[in-house]
Write a structure and sequence with these properties.
Strand order of the largest sheet: 5-4-1-6-8-7-9
Radius of gyration: 16 Å
Bound molecules: guanosine-5'-triphosphate, magnesium ion
Shape: globular
Oligomer: single chain
Number of helices: 7
CATH class: Alpha Beta
CATH superfamily: Spore Coat Polysaccharide Biosynthesis Protein SpsA, Chain A
Structural class: alpha/beta
Length: 211
């Protein structure tokens, strides 16, 4: 195997996760909230687009607004806002490439080399899933925490995820733990410390705008 074996960009579909309730933001559709003058979803689409071969959006409300961004939009097939895994499943149901990369709509500063580093690590580790980990402050210390919605996964895990969610499973970690998973640290010297900061409230979103 060559030293830098990886996955071709064309073999990855990027999935923007915008299907949540946004309850901590007052129930608004998070992906449509403005960030530096443009909707969060559009901002993420621009950042993710160059990293992947195709793009899709998972959303459950205001579908026409998302369609206006020029990317296919798929709502959850599972009912009642079953959480991010419902978005993963909707993505896998429509994914025609061997790999799917998920990104949430509320983390606008995510790395521009996210796909490249997850892809290299998943191949090097002969794994099925790669999850980003990023430094987070914890009781005066800094620890690497998994960012489970930044997830590169094999598209053929669809059957497994379908069975897990049909049985009532909702936890990303509990499902990924059933498969060969590598964790990929984003704590190199040049990595932006706020790359994985996500906005759960409007105040957090406005604070991110000014960083
Ligand atoms: N498809 C889908 N995605 C979801 C669901 N719940 C959360 N997500 C997505 O998962 C990611 C992380 O979720 P949260 O940060 O909790 O966002 P949220 O659920 O919209 O916000 P809260 O209601 O405040 O928890 C976001 O990209 C959400 O869009 C869901 O029920 N279905
Ligand atoms: Mg939530």
């Amino acid at each position: 195997m060559p030293a830098h074996a990886t996955i071709a960009t064309a073999d990855i579909t990027g999935l923007l996760l915008a299907g949540g309730r946004g309850s901590r933001m007052g129930g608004v559709d998070k992906g449509l909230q403005p960030f530096n003058g443009e909707p969060l979803a559009l901002h993420a689409i621009r950042r993710l687009g160059p990293q992947v071969g195709r793009l899709m959006v998972n959303a459950n409300r205001n579908l026409a607004d998302y369609e206006a961004f020029g990317v296919p939009v798929w709502p959850d097939s599972l009912a009642d806002y079953a959480g991010p895994l419902a978005g993963f499943l909707a993505g896998l149901e429509h994914c025609t490439t061997p790999w799917l990369l998920t990104v949430p709509c509320d983390t606008p500063l995510f790395p521009t080399d996210l796909a490249a580093r997850l892809a290299e690590a998943v191949v090097a580790g002969n794994a099925e899933i790669a999850i980003a980990t990023a430094p987070e402050a914890a009781e005066g210390d800094v620890v690497l925490r998994p960012q489970p919605v930044f997830c590169l996964l094999r598209a053929d895990l669809r059957g497994s995820l379908q069975r897990y969610t049909e049985a009532g499973g909702r936890k990303v970690h509990a499902w990924t733990a059933q498969h060969r998973t590598v964790h990929v640290p984003f704590d190199r010297p040049g990595d932006a410390p706020d790359a994985f900061f996500n906005a759960n409230t409007l105040a957090e979103l406005h604070a991110l705008e000014n960083r």
